[in-house]
Amino acid sequence: MKGENSKLPILAGTLVGLLLFADPVLATQTHGQPEGLYVHQMAHVFFLISMWSLEFWLRQRNLNKERGWRYIQFAAILFIIWNIDAAAVHFMDEHLDILGITKIDLWHIQIDNLQGQNGITILYYILKLDHLLCVPAMFYLYYGLKTIFKNTAVDDDGNRIQP
Amino acid sequence: MILSSIPILLIDLIGSFLMIVLSFLSLRIVFKLRKQDNDNLIWTYLWWVCLALSCFAVSRSVGHILKNFLLMFNHNPLWNTIRPVSGAINTFMFIVVGAVTLFFERIWRIYQLIRKDRQALQSAHKEMLFLNQNLERLVEQRTNALSDSEYKYRKIFEVSKDMILVTEKDGTIVNLNPTGYSLLGLASETDNIESRNFHEFMAESENGFDVMASVQSEGSISNVELEIITSDGTVKRILLSGSMADTSDNETETIHFLIKDIDQRKRMEEQLAQADKLASIGELSSGVAHEINNPLGVMLGYTQLLLRDEKSTSERYADLKTIEKHIRSCKAIVEDLLSFSRKSETEKELLDIHQIIEDVITFVQHHSNIEHITIEKEYNPGVRPLLVDEKKIKQVLINLVVNAIHAVGTKGHIWISTDLGEPAGDLIVKVRDDGHGIEKKHLKNIFDPFFTTKPTGEGTGLGLSVSYGIIKNHGGHIFVDSKTGVGTTFTVILPAV
């Protein structure tokens, strides 16, 4: 104990010295604008994988045979699709130089397709309605939890247990 | 292409609002689940998933709503300032939701283990509770069962008609049942047999060692015929089975013996064999006697005819007299043989057996020198008259008493007793002496015709054979029991009328 206490001032002194007399070594990397997009896209992929993993294990453990968990499985599937949808929209927005989106007024937008393919324009328009996927996903999650709550049995101590 | 932005705007705004509402509703349900079972790991997991999703929904939806309103009212610079922060929070929330969700499999597995352990604990708890509540009753039940079992096996040990003997490996007696004490002629109250050795009771101690060696090498032996010596020196034949057994502490080994007294059975078998043998000899004797009797009659007749014509002083007369004497002697033997083979006719009448015995004693006292021999009588007054041939029964009793006198010699005691047998009331007559006794090897031949231990010329060996035939002819039995140096007892059993 005595030896350890005697080393403490030496370590503290070294640290203070390093901080006071430090020179810039340009070791810290700077982060430009595209990084945020990449991280966001990666987050979508990560979210997708986690949802796929949940869906996979629900099937593996045969939990999808119970109503409540089956709804949660549906929620996971819808979140997977939503992630694909959102990632695709981000991709179209930021990476493809074929679409030009201009706000005309409060109620109209102009989507210009540089390659003149209306299909991609309509697809983009539909994909922009991503709440049509994530809201049902969230609803299924809620409904699944509600079903589990209803179906859980009550044990001898009055605690709800997994069916 | 110009398109309406209303659907996108409306769905975005309504959807964002619904996302917040639904995520909080989900959170509320999980909250209720947790409230009811706070220790449930799955509810905790769902709680964290819903919490992350709520944060995600709030961050994303608020961002979307702000974006739409700010752009709607041309606050583009403000939105451009907020946008990176909103996007970063949104991205962070994605990652949090994904990270929490990924733990599902591990959480589920742990939950299953906990559930299994909890069930085991609950089951053990219930069992403990049951044992606590019923321990006294269970102990009582077990004690009663043990006591019943102990009583049952103790009873088997005690009431067994066979001897049960427990010894150590070296033959030291550990336990012996009452039948065993009785068989060995010991008293269980006074004779402490424990610590004595099994070999002490074997007629030949080598047999005991052989038995022990066999049991220890083979593990068991069964139905070995041996002889044991009882406390009064009597030798008894036994049938012995035994096997090794562990004691309750599993540390020492004992040998358990089951011993049957087969002495009586063996004696019966020997008597039956003897009876069969005598019956066969009787048949043979009867045939021979009949064949010889007639020529002897003719010879006697002609001899007597010749004697009539001879003067009693002549030498020829003396010769004929000698022939006549020997023919009569032969005829007597033939008569005896016929008596033995039960072919001679009997004239039965109801007679007092005690009077017959008295006549016999008087006859013997007149014809024998028995001054120093005491004849003691012990009559049962309850004996009723019997249907017997007086002459023949007298002949039997004379034979037995004369034999007793010969056995006693010049000085001794003879006891004659009568009694009633159970349950038929048969007459039992015993003639006992304290003479030299009969050797064991002769006992089995004693009723054989012409068998005698007397010197040649002193007896024909037909006395007991004739007695045997007469008693059998009366439907009775005759036995002998003798011990060298102690004395002999003849027992006659005659059936009641």
Characterise this structure:
The complex is a heterodimer of chains A (163) and B (497). By secondary structure, chain A is mainly alpha-helical. In chain A, 64% of the residues lie in helices and 9% in strands. Chain A has 5 helices and 4 strands. In chain A, strands 1-2 form a two-stranded antiparallel sheet. A two-stranded antiparallel ribbon of chain A has the order 3-4. Chain B has a 5-stranded antiparallel sheet, sandwiched between helices. In chain B, strands 8-10-11-13-12 form a 5-stranded mixed sheet, covered by helices on one side. In chain B, α1 (6-36) packs antiparallel against α2. Chain B is rod-shaped. The model of chain B has no long low-confidence stretch (mean pLDDT 87). At the A-B interface, α2, β2, α4, α5 and β4 of A face β1, α1, α2, α3 and α4 of B.
The amount of beta strand of chain A, in percent, is 5-15%
Helix and strand element order of chain B: EHHHHEEHHEEEHHEHEEHEEHHEE
**Rounded average pLDDT of chain A:** 81
Give the strand order, joined by hyphens, for the main sheet of chain A: 1-2
Biggest pleated-sheet summary of chain B? 5 strands, antiparallel
The number of E-state strands of chain B comes to: 13
Low-confidence stretches of chain A: none
Helix content of chain A: 55-70%
Biggest chain contact: A-B, 50 and 53 residues
What gyration radius of chain A follows from the Cα positions, in whole Å?
A: 27 Å
Count of discrete alpha- or pi-helical segments spanning 4 or more residues of chain A: 5
Oligomerization category of the chains in this entry: heterodimer
Summarize model confidence as the mean pLDDT of chain B. 87
Unreliable stretches of chain B, pLDDT < 50, 5 or more residues? none
> Which shape of chain B, going by the Cα principal axes?
rod-shaped
Percent range for β-strand residues of chain B: 15-25%
Give the SSE order of chain A as H and E letters.
HHHEEHHEE
| Cα gyration radius of chain B (Å) | 56 Å
